[in-house]
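Record Mechanosensitive ion channel protein MscS, 305 aa.
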Amino acid sequence: MLNFLTNPILGETTPLDLVWVIIIIIIAMTLIRVVRMQLKRTFGDRVPKSDLDFMSTVVTYLLYLATFLIILPYLHFDLSGLFVAGGIIALALAFATQNIVANLVSGLFLMFERPIKIGDNISINTLTGTVQNIQIMSTIVRTFDGIYIRIPNSKLFTSDITNLVIHPARRFEYIIGIRYKDDAGKAISIIRDMIDKQPYALKSPGPSVYVDMLDSSSVNIVVKIWAPSLYWWGLRTELLWKLKVELEKNDIQIPFPQQEVWFNNILKADMKSVKEPPPIREIPYQEIEKKENIHGPKPGETHGW
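=>
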């Protein structure tokens, strides 16, 4: 029986080698199934189904390739020439597809790290918009103007990403100027009452309202308010005008820039000593009579030279 398993039947391949090949294939198929199920559990709620299918396909083919390379020695194939040819092909593909590989690897890192997710408002360099889709090779962002932008994952992963909504709360602020003759304490009390009436203005952390600067034409009051990240923009755009109207109802005005010019007493005295210039005397218009030129040539005559 032992001789039967060790006797070559196809070249140098023995029945024992074929048994090992079958065992390796069974293990590989089981491993592929487990890996696909694990990928689905891990990324099922993080990435779209199309991207998950693509990821599973790539991993499956990589495991098939590894299984094939493991089986070849049991079939007594000479791998030296195959490895040389494969190395040359792999080197050529590496140069040709380096950007694709960089995007693919960056996409995998983005899925594991998760600095952004679909629906987040983000800012990257000069671009600000909402994440529409996170794919293996690229990320789709829609700007607030409704423009579609595709960002390669390699560029996205190496850039500074500002996620505007990843934290549950966000703060914004106003600078409101009032006149010097207005009561700053009353203005602060009115502003606080208006903030308390807003349903999206958070109590903890609470708002801050205080006099920050005595400017050239106004007393500047700084207003800092915390709001949920999903609603802070609507509150910020609506509340400012409400504060302006409420302050004016209580006779607290927002001044415009102005300047007062004061003259020195010496300058006033010097101006009084300046005499007015004498009036301009008008000369009546006189028409000058035209005299006939007696000695001049008459029409039709010639000079006598």
